[in-house]
Amino acid sequence: MKGKGIRNPWQLLYRVYRHVNPVLEQEFSFWYKEAKAIPDPELRKQAIASMETKKFHCQGGAVYAAQSLTHVDVLVALIVAYQTISDYLDNLCDRSTSLDPVDFRQLHLSMQDALTPGAEIRNYYLYREEKDDGGFLARLVKTCQQQVERLPSYPQVQSLVLKYSLLYSDLQVHKHIAPEKREAALLHWWEQHRPEYPDILWQEFSAVTGSTIGIFSLFVMATQQKIDQADIERLDAAYFPWICGLHILLDYLIDLEEDKAGGDLNFVSYYASTDEATARLTHFIQQAKTSAKALPNAAFHSMIVDGLIAFYLVDRKVTRDQPQIYNTAKQLLKQAGSITSFLFYVNSFLVRR
InterPro entries, from UniProt (predicted)? Predict the structure, then answer.
């Protein structure tokens, strides 16, 4: 797999800006125009809003394509389309007109269909009032199906990709139902999976399932002609729970005060104290770093871990005016590699401008 030569953050950022970003901008612009053409005003509003406010999700996910320049067009098209589905559905569940878990479940069938070549397009809007998206979601699904078929070893990773996707969909259903029912639903769900993940807490499991980067890492692995099953298992152990969990817990950390003020669900708020939150996130960082070193192309995955720490913890929300976040962030930043942190610190301003 071309990309194994990535050994330092300078080289990674060069590949991203030289090879990945031009494709990303092209793909993102295409889907943004498609979103603007959606007939139903509410669906159009949510599609456009999701793309305007969450473009950095596509930008971050597409970094994974830098590992395989021979497949960069396929990977970026796939990652942008899949992440666009994810962000669009998140808006439909979080900011739109429904609190119906049956509706949320039906919408999210599109995420598994997108990962299943040959799956028939379903009526994903069956249980909601707004239905006419002009084929927007169906085209996203079809694009993903076409691109995964171009990954030589996709059949080897498909079952794990679908596992991650189903867990992500479960989370989206449980966390968007009526507020008074959410915690009980999440705890019941956790009890079903607790034996498989005995080293993490219920809110951490929920956070783990909310990341799509484990799926993207498997897409890249599938660009190889043949995959060692042991490598798939090592990647699973590294990303699920540690790297995916770190990703989403950091995201929730920087939104802690904002979510508290708005009465929104925040998984970091469930820690008993700031000290516990700092200790658990430090543990996730340490486990993520250790497990990343055991992966093929370990340098790349280690840079991802350091990059996540820097990207989130230099966010403008992390200020002395919010001491709980600031003090925790200050401690966690010490865990990141200095060169990688600096480069991702600079890059974060370019991404967020």
Answer: YtpB-like (IPR019712)
